[in-house]
Amino acid sequence: MRNDIERVLIDEAVIERRLDSMAVEIERDFPDGTLVVIILLKGALVFAADLLRRVPRPLEIECLNVSSYEGLESSGQVNFLDRHFPDVKDRHVLLLDDILDTGRTLHAVSERLYQEGAAVVHTGVLLAKDKHRAEEVEADYVGFEIGDEFVVGYGLDYKGRYRNLPYVGVLKLEAAN
Ligand code: XMP
């Protein structure tokens, strides 16, 4: 797998240090009470697992399956793939995704959470691409700002692969086939 990576963008130690500080930010911002965390599958799985173990407060964890990306491109449409939606009525929600790109995913899921009666929705992403977004949305917690290039690893995939790399890296063009 390492041979398919053009360069490591964010290594494991740097990710770990940033997760420590993100956990402190989250702990500081939320009022007392149990928080509902919604993890967007599959990309946010690794990030969320490592982040949430650093947050020392009562949490309920839910997962949502959404899809919007096809290969290297955003399809422009966000699809909810689950039959059931978590009960978020009057709850404080922390929505976690792997990466903020066009903004369509966070925008669509946040809207849906409010439609379902969530009291407050905060959003957190490991990565945010520094670019103009199709939807006006920014995350409340951002691990790292990156350039507008396709990245894999630490949960992010290309055609289902590379999610288990312990770092975030840029894929070689010849590996994207
Ligand atoms: P939007 O465009 O809705 O994108 O903000 C969010 C979703 O798109 C996927 N995505 C990527 N996946 N490398 C990936 O592996 C990338 O560089 C990338 N950019 C966007 C991702 O699934 C994210 O949840």
UniProtKB/TrEMBL annotation:
Its main location: cytoplasm. Its EC number is 2.4.2.8. One of its GO terms (cellular component) is cytosol. Pfam families: Pribosyltran. GO terms for molecular function: hypoxanthine phosphoribosyltransferase activity; magnesium ion binding; nucleotide binding. Its cofactor is Mg(2+). Pathway: Purine metabolism; IMP biosynthesis via salvage pathway; IMP from hypoxanthine: step 1/1. InterPro entries: HGPRT, Hxn_phspho_trans, PRTase-like, PRTase_dom. GO terms for biological process: GMP salvage; guanine salvage; hypoxanthine metabolic process; IMP salvage; purine ribonucleoside salvage. Keywords: Cytoplasm, Glycosyltransferase, Magnesium, Metal-binding, Nucleotide-binding, Purine salvage, Transferase. It is an enzyme of class 2 (transferase). Belongs to the purine/pyrimidine phosphoribosyltransferase family. This is Hypoxanthine phosphoribosyltransferase. The gene is hpt.
